[in-house]
Amino acid sequence: MLVVMKHNAADEHVAEVVRVIKDMGYDARPIPGGQRTAVGLIGNDGRVDAGRLQGLEGVREVIPVTQAYKQVSREWKEDDTLVSLPNGTVVGGSDLVVMAGPCSVEGESVLIDIAHQLKEMGATILRGGAFKPRSSPYSFQGLGEEGLRYLARAREETGMAVVTEALDPAGVQLVAEYADILQIGARNMQNYPLLREVGRAGKPVLLKRGMSATIEEFLLAAEYILAEGNDDVILCERGVRSFAKHTRNLLDLAAIPVVKSLSHLPIIADPSHGTGLRSKVIPMGRAAVAAGADGLMIEVHHDPPRALSDGAQSLYPEQFGEMMSQIRVIAQAIGRDLAAPLRPAVTR
Ligand code: PEP
Ligand code: MN
What we know:
By secondary structure, this protein is of the alpha/beta class. The protein has 11 helices and 15 strands. It has helices at residues 11-23, 51-54, 108-120, 145-158, 172-178, 192-199, 215-227, 255-262, 271-275, 278-290, 317-333; strands at residues 2-5, 27-31, 38-42, 59-63, 83-84, 90-91, 95-101, 125-127, 161-165, 181-184, 205-208, 233-237, 267-269, 295-299, 337-338. Strand 7 (95-101), helix 3 and strand 8 (125-127) form a beta-alpha-beta unit. The longest helix has 17 residues, at 317-333. It is elongated, with a radius of gyration of 21 Å. It binds phosphoenolpyruvate (PEP) and manganese (II) ion. The site of phosphoenolpyruvate has 9 residues, from loops. Phosphoenolpyruvate (PEP) binds next to loops.
């Protein structure tokens, strides 16, 4: 439930609404807006009697939130959420943000080399898995903390922000010490203890859609993170399972405008996992930008045939550069742009 205050409501009116909500046994979250403040009522799992709130001074109206998810909904917050990173990158604004890098962190110098190239081509966020959720227990599982250290080194050298996956609740603290964004992988989208843990970790979260998740389940997973007090959530459409075998997953492009209308959270697309095929990544990346994605996550490897994971879907660096020039034109055609590249030299 949302208590919308009149535009001239005083601070003490807002405070009284908060007090009454708490007195009713719920939690209250004031949401300041451009025109007026609203106070969100949280902690209820069903209907709440609005009577006590309706008559309070300064209250304009009380709106029940009709979706199962609340804090992630547009009803709750009309304005788009902007997720700001320490390197100045903002996800969710009019500029598109590109996260790129290898599927797995494989070594220090190769990571730093590719980070420099990707940055030159306009990526502002470096991706790379140090803890890998592999379908087979016999596949490469990642370098662990060593990989996190390499990512931190690459950030120091390039100024790029770093996104990397946290696999389990016990590992969140460690990943949060190194990463700028904590990634929750598709396989973990409904790992509720993990979602709660990243909700408390004090870092932005990139939440990937589960391979069989409906949009409602996806948004409810995000709600777990916001419910812990972390509003900095970036959603990621990365393809869902389908009956068809022509691509690894079925990249659900319609999810982008659908999520945009239901939620204020930014949503990016991952055409690498969404297609699983190098030759399909660029066309679907272009399409995702046209569909309104706030950015892309792209796997790029210096030598894809020798990659330790996901080589078949990894772009060569030159292809990534080509994709960047193409998506810039598409972004501009819909009144957006690519985020400005990071400044070339980070002097140390
Ligand atoms: C990844 O980003 O490398 C990854 C494992 O993605 P997903 O969780 O979408 O499969
Ligand atoms: Mn991968």
